[in-house]
């Protein structure tokens, strides 16, 4: 990514500076993987001449357990925005999740060609808007709904307030353009915060997961779970899966990093539904840690946006390939030939009791 940076210095600088500002201070530290948190326990003298990374997510077979998380407004990073990301995900044979607040509509992304795509949903106060959006996603061939549940109100994003953030005038939230909800008004603080306060439903509750099931047959993944109690409720209310996420560490300071919260959620789910991790993945070794702690796969956000800003579709393709290759190498050096061979015994965390070697 550093090499790609030099190819488009101005766009890289504008995009990454904005994003880095948004994750400064406590929030940034929250989602970092501390070097001492997790150590590997590799097994040796295992034939790793063949490594299989393929997996199945909600019945869809993909090349690796690395998928693309929903990230909004991608045309701020590159003129082709979500088009480029969709094509790169399809080329990598993995899943892309399109944000509600994308700068390309569900129909436009579908027009880029075949691919497995999920649609991330914010619930608006006007439920007819939600119904229209879900049905449009269904018609466009999207395969699941990713319901974001950790944003009843937007966290205090001080850089957005300082910069009085709004979308550039040539861009809109495309999925809401025909509903006259695609523009953000300029304000004295954050235009995004004002938009969210005015449009999204702060009364969202577990009963709304049931309501969504009445308007769509698509599986519903609940994104934003970081406690065992909420994992149990997600199972109880019929979620098809859980995504452990702290919203890129931009909502509430002092919440745990996603990798720290993962095992609690996995244990609470008890294998009844799959659990995925979203946030903090920067290397293939991070993917291995997540799977060893019980995740069925991971979603990546910032690596996609940074690589998109640097080199468009080619950049996203490259970062997906890098993570694929790093993860494959980590598996080989740990003595794992398939995903099912990655177990909790392959890592030791800082909260584990001292491990006593088994008797032979």
TrEMBL record:
It is an enzyme of class 1 (oxidoreductase). It is found in: Peroxisome. It comes from the Eukaryota. The keyword Coiled coil does not apply. It catalyses: glycolate + O2 = glyoxylate + H2O2. GO terms for molecular function: (S)-2-hydroxy-acid oxidase activity; FMN binding. Keywords: Flavoprotein, FMN, Glycolate pathway, Oxidoreductase, Peroxisome, Photorespiration. Residues 40-352 form the FMN hydroxy acid dehydrogenase domain. One of its GO terms (biological process) is oxidative photosynthetic carbon pathway. The active site is at 247 (proton acceptor). InterPro entries: Aldolase_TIM (IPR013785), Alpha-hydoxy_acid_DH_FMN (IPR012133), FMN-dep_DH (IPR000262), FMN_HAD (IPR037396), FMN_hydac_DH_AS (IPR008259). Pfam families: FMN_dh. Its EC number is 1.1.3.15. FMN binds at residues 70-72, 99, 120, 148, 223, 245, 278-282, 301-302. One of its GO terms (cellular component) is peroxisome. Pathway: Photosynthesis; photorespiration; glycine from 2-phosphoglycolate: step 2/3. CDD domains: alpha_hydroxyacid_oxid_FMN. Its cofactor is FMN. Glyoxylate binds at residues 122, 157, 247, 250. Its main location: other. Belongs to the FMN-dependent alpha-hydroxy acid dehydrogenase family. This is (S)-2-hydroxy-acid oxidase.
């Amino acid at each position: 990514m550093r090499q790609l940076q030099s190819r488009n210095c101005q766009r890289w600088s504008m995009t990454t500076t904005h994003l880095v500002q948004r994750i400064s201070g406590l929030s940034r530290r929250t989602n970092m993987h501390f070097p001492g948190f997790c150590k590997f326990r590799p097994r040796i003298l295992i034939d790793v001449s063949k490594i299989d990374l393929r997996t199945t997510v909600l019945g869809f077979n993909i090349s690796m357990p690395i998928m693309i998380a929903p990230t909004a407004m991608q045309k701020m990073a590159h003129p082709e925005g979500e088009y480029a990301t969709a094509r790169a995900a399809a080329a990598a044979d993995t899943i892309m999740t399109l944000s509600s607040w994308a700068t390309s509509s569900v129909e436009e992304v579908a027009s880029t060609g075949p691919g497995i795509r999920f649609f991330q949903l914010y619930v608006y106060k006007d439920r007819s808007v939600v119904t229209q959006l879900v049905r449009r996603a269904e018609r466009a061939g999207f395969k699941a709904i990713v319901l974001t549940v950790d944003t009843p109100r937007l966290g205090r994003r001080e850089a957005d307030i300082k910069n009085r953030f709004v979308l550039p005038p040539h861009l809109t939230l495309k999925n809401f353009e025909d509903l006259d909800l695609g523009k953000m008004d300029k304000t004295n603080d954050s235009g995004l915060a004002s938009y969210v306060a005015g449009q999204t439903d702060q009364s969202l509750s577990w009963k709304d997961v049931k309501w969504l099931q009445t308007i769509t047959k698509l599986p519903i993944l609940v994104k934003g779970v970081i406690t065992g109690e909420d994992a149990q409720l997600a199972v109880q209310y019929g979620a098809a899966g859980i995504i452990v996420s702290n919203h890129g560490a931009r909502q509430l300071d002092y919440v745990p990093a996603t990798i720290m919260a993962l095992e609690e959620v996995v244990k609470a789910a008890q294998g009844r539904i799959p659990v995925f991790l979203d946030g903090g993945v920067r290397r293939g070794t991070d993917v291995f840690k997540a799977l060893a702690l019980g995740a069925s796969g991971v979603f990546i956000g910032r690596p996609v946006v940074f690589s998109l800003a640097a080199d468009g579709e080619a950049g996203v393709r490259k970062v997906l390939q890098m993570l694929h290759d790093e993860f494959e190498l980590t598996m080989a050096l740990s003595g794992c030939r398939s995903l099912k061979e990655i177990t909790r015994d392959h890592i030791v965390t800082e909260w584990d009791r001292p491990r006593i070697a088994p008797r032979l």
